Amino acid sequence: MADRATGRPAAVEPAGAPPPPGGTGVVAVTKAFGAVRALSGVTLDFPRGAVTALMGENGAGKSTLLKILTGDHRPTEGHVLLDGRPVELRSPAQARALGIRIVPQEPEIVPHVSVAENVYAGALPTGRGRRLDRAALRRRITADLERLGFAGVLDPDLPGSRLTAAQRQLVEIMRALTGEAKLIAFDEPTSSLSEHEADTLFALIGRLRAQGIAVVYVSHRMREIFRLADRIAVLRDGELAGVQDARGTTEGDLVRQMVGRDLSAVFVRGDVATDRVVLRARGLTTDHVRDVDLTVRAGEVVGLAGLIGAGRSELALALAGDLPVRSGTVTLDGQPLPVGSPGRVIRAGLGLAPEERKAQALFLHRSIRDNTSVAVLERLRRWRFVRRGAERDLARAYTDRLRVRAPSIEHEVRKLSGGNQQKVVLARWLARRPKLLILDEPTRGIDVGAKAEIHRIVADLAEEGVALLVISSELPELLGLADRIVVLQNGRVTGELDRAEATEEAVLQLAMADDITAAGAPAGPTSPGAPT
Amino acid sequence: MTSATTPPAVGRPGPGGPGSGSGRARRGGRPLALLAGIGGQNLSLLGALALVLTVFGLLDDNYLGWTNLQVIAEAATITGLLAVVQTVVIICGGLDISVGSQAGLASVVSAMAFTSAGSSAIAGTAAAVAVGILVGIVNGLVIVRGRVNATIATLAGLAAYKGIAQLVSDGRAQGYVLGDPVFVFLGRGRIAGLPVMVWILIIVALAVHVLLTYTDIGRNLYAIGGNDTAARLAGIAINKYLVAVYALIGAVAALAGILLTARTGSGQPVSGSEGLELKAITAAALGGCALKGGRGGIGGTLLAVALLGALENGLTVQGINAFWQNVAQGSLLVVAVVVQQSRSGDRAVGLPG
Prior knowledge:
A: alpha/beta; disordered N terminus; B: mainly alpha; two-stranded antiparallel sheet; 14 helices
């Protein structure tokens, strides 16, 4: 086996150079679904001991490429090369046995069994009569936790249901790393991690690279890519748009390759806030947050920052009437906000675009029209009959305004890309004309083009005088959008920064406050000698 | 892609701005549009129905005669009513397997109230409908307030309502209603050549179809079944809707029970209504309702009811053992769901959701 650990790829590489002899990668891979070519003629190598980042807008073919690598899809043409040998991958299990592993975007954790049993699910050590050999299980998990440096951050006896997002991710990583791994693909691993937790992951990826494993890293986040990647491959419309050494490449280069045009990576908006207070919460206490004071004015964008588990989404859900409020007062436009019923809260003028688009907002099998009009049907009906013409006009108006790209408003929402799905959710709330709009992770998992458009929409809404509360785990986005940032930590507000004071360091400091030392706190694992 | 370089026209929601093109794509010519409107599932149902009618028609000359077709229609009415409301509850993500027991209870109540009110058909039907609605509300509250899985809650109802019907009737047929013109009219009457029972099914089905397709209530029911969390966060009071749906089922099941009484002449606690839940659910599934909710319609369900009715009648006419009919029905339910799963293509592996 050729040692590729030192053999970093050349700085400039012709797009689609085949893997060198003994290398691992894909050769001339094409995948067609009916008439649609999700991937056409992609040749790309994944050198061992290097991190190859895979970028591209949603629908560019990243997932398809990963699925071919992991045996989920069989290529229509071309083949996968593993250590120089063409392999035909018939199933994920076979790919796994050959040493190709993936850490999926959404961890699959069995809630009622322990971390140890989750890690070795499917290959549990058994004794006589297929009984679970708990002693062997204990030895294995202890050894593996030690080997991977997770001892102390992951309690092997904890049931799956009690893991934080970061810990769930660690379980998936441990699964991927049992046995001999040759290639590991990470599919947007940080999308549910806070920045701090992500650092632990990056340290681990560094170690994997040092061990000579080929790492494939799929992400939309530029900073991570530049921090981690040795080489960056960009896909566009199913074709390889370019492969380059990470050094000497700029964000602009990548964005151009991804979208075929220039875009400013981070959006900065002007100050259009007024003095009229729209939302005022005083001493708001729920099962997840305590004593929260929060004010949002018309035309103001307030950012809500914090680590995963700090209570940001729970605060949003409580304001939206979906989680119980234990004490405190909330007023909207001076009127007490009804609690405990999303319907009444919406009628009072508050809209929430929740964190999980597909699970919490969309009716995937219904049309764009249905999804847009669902919260305003009561304004579109005459004697309980929905006025179809008015409904179509409304759906068209708002989907045009937000530039939802779809063949028709009758198109099923599940067939849209993530960015367009998010725009449909926004269209729903724009149609409702709320006084306060809460956006929870509005750009998660969305490609750069759509992201910029959503930032634009937020800015325009503020200009129209809507009060906005934006939750985001991406600090540059929050710093660009928000007039003011409120930081939550462990359910409490630990600080408030206006635009002039807000820097990533300042926000992170408040978000982690005294939490770093608190063992087992929901902030998740801390890596030795880690960040800021 | 180029459109994104121009600044988005936010702030001016004008219908049909540049690059919209949305919603303009019309389906081809008229016949094609008609076919597309019927839908693939319904086309295959029509095909299956034609096949069944042809096969049994060839085997027996009288099968396709007007008289026998009316027999089929009458026999299918009660199943049809229950299948129509089953469709509604399945669309909003629930299930009601107590419909048969509800119909039996209503049948007994209608006959007994009729008798004890001195042969008053109004008292009989009103009491039955009231009991039906009450039972439906109980189902709904157990599911919504008690947070009980709909299958389990109505499985309990299946047993309990049957038990209540047997208790109040002492397990025997009750009363005799065929001396009353109203019941005779319901069970035996005709309007414009069609049995009154069939008219009732047509009216109920049409009303439910309009409710589902043209009103905001129907839209919200589809939304609840499609994604209950999203529905709640979009402001739909899902608990109220669910209780109301179960109450509607109770009312229509009571109607079915009244027709059962009118047809047999007396209140039937069990015979005549037992097993109707299986038929109703089979028809709804066969008609294209996704059992996890959010999809389906009345048209498909009615076609499936017709198919099941034609099949049952054909098998009976051919003198095939009733036990085999049960086997045929069970198989159809499985086939319907298997076909549905393979069409949805959501999830090729893993346990069914």
